[in-house]
């Protein structure tokens, strides 16, 4: 029998690049989780916008169990039926004509950036290599993607970094105009910056990027790793904005927790990835693809996508109700069910304190930087769970505010 493991086991055997919570979840169902002690939590985190159909969705577990009894892995020496079905669904429901499968958002973005440089090389020669991205962006943790992401804290100590990268202010049209030129091979942008603070792009900004890329023969890449697969209220956010990229990356919710990612593009651009130029041992895994195919089938319905907007309104109203009592939020913002509440006053830069306190009240929420609470529940979270989660958040805020007030009332 295996020896029991606890949170302390992490400190004993795991590389210390994470600082996980003090409790260990062991079971999930719908929008609720339970830890080793049996304590229940409402899940407003969804594994960082991953379990968009909740935990243990019966239709997903059914197709996975069926595939487990058929075929686990082949490698890309062969193709497989689930991968082909998933690719066909993606090309039928998006702008894309070709799909590349891999395992994570970072891998999808790595593939997109490599493809953009290869495409520029094939069509314009070796001098068109510039990549423009946004400050406070997040595109993954490989050396290439973390360098393209505009957050220096993630590249410190890893130099020398890949070159010919230019980071500009998000939503700044003038900065885009100044940075994108004949030497630019690609522009990469998140339609909604997630890790950077839950900041939606303006339609005018994305339109300007499209215009400038067309003008300078650069490829426009949309990183929809977090906002994609229904979280915006459309299957992909580019559809809601009405701006079509040349390449789109998708991961997180695509597998509802089973590792899978995709890079979507056109026939013309895909042609630069000839045999041998890129690959992935596990990309297109049959088990991952059968789950992802069912995820898309379940999410890409009028009922689910319309429900995202309804839940957005309920959460926004709940956060504004809390703020009316306690005044801790400077702004509530976001798109669909990727929502952020920027903190102010005594709680400025204390988002992590609220996350830790909320867990004690049985609520899982996230941060987006040090000063924004991030709320990313399941797209189908029952309204009762949503309201219970908001009630637990209010109880958390009330407790923290009372502690601040008590401390302020003490004599100097």
UniProtKB/TrEMBL annotation:
The keyword Coiled coil is assigned to this record: yes
Modification type N6-(pyridoxal phosphate)lysine: residues: 252
Binding site for pyridoxal 5'-phosphate: 105-106, 138, 223-226, 281
Gene3D superfamilies tied to this protein: Aspartate Aminotransferase, domain 1, Type I PLP-dependent aspartate aminotransferase-like (Major domain)
Primary residence: cytoplasm
Co-factor remark: Binds 1 pyridoxal phosphate per subunit.
Biological or metabolic pathway of the protein: Amino-acid biosynthesis; L-arginine biosynthesis; N(2)-acetyl-L-ornithine from L-glutamate: step 4/4
Cellular compartment(s): Cytoplasm
Example GO molecular function: transaminase activity
Keywords for this protein: Amino-acid biosynthesis, Aminotransferase, Arginine biosynthesis, Coiled coil, Cytoplasm, Pyridoxal phosphate, Transferase
Protein name, as recorded: Acetylornithine aminotransferase
Lineage: Bacteria, Pseudomonadati, Pseudomonadota, Betaproteobacteria, Neisseriales
Gene name linked to the record: argD
């Amino acid at each position: 029998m295996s020896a029991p493991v606890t949170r302390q086991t992490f400190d004993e055997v795991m590389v210390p690049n994470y600082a996980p919570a003090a409790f260990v979840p062991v079971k999930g169902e719908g929008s609720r989780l339970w830890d080793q002690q049996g304590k229940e939590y409402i899940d407003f985190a969804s594994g960082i916008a991953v379990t968009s159909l909740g935990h243990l969705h019966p239709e997903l577990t059914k197709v996975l169990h069926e595939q487990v009894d058929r075929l686990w892995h082949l490698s890309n020496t062969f193709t497989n039926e689930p991968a082909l079905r998933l690719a066909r669904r993606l090309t039928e429901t998006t702008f894309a004509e070709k799909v590349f499968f891999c395992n994570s958002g970072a891998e999808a973005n790595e593939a997109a950036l490599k493809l953009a440089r290869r495409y520029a090389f094939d069509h314009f020669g070796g001098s068109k290599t510039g990549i423009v991205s946004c400050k406070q962006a997040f595109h993954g943790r490989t050396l290439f993607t973390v360098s393209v992401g505009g957050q220096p804290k993630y590249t410190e100590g890893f130099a020398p970094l890949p070159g010919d990268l230019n980071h500009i202010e998000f939503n700044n049209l003038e900065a885009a105009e100044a940075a994108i030129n004949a030497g630019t091979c690609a522009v990469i942008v998140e339609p909604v910056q997630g890790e950077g603070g839950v900041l939606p792009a303006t339609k005018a900004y994305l339109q300007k990027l499209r215009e400038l890329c067309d003008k300078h023969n650069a490829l426009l890449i949309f990183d929809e790793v977090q906002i994609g697969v229904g979280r915006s209220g459309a299957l992909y956010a580019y559809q809601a904005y009405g701006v079509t990229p040349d390449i789109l990356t998708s991961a997180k919710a695509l597998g509802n927790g089973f590792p899978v990612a995709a890079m979507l593009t056109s026939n013309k651009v895909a042609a630069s990835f000839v045999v041998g130029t890129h690959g992935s041992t596990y990309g297109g895994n049959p088990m991952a693809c059968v789950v992802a195919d069912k995820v898309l089938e379940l999410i890409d319905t009028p009922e689910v996508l319309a429900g995202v907007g309804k839940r957005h309104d309920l959460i926004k109203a709940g956060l504004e109700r809390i703020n009316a009592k306690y005044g801790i939020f400077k702004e509530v913002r976001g798109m669909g069910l990727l929502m952020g509440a920027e903190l102010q006053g005594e709680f400025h830069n204390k988002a992590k304190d609220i996350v830790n306190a909320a867990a004690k009240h049985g609520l899982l929420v996230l941060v987006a930087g040090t000063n924004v609470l991030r709320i990313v529940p399941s797209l189908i979270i029952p309204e009762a769970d949503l309201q219970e989660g908001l009630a637990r958040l209010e109880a958390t805020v009330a407790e923290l505010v009372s502690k601040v007030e008590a401390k302020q009332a003490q004599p100097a």
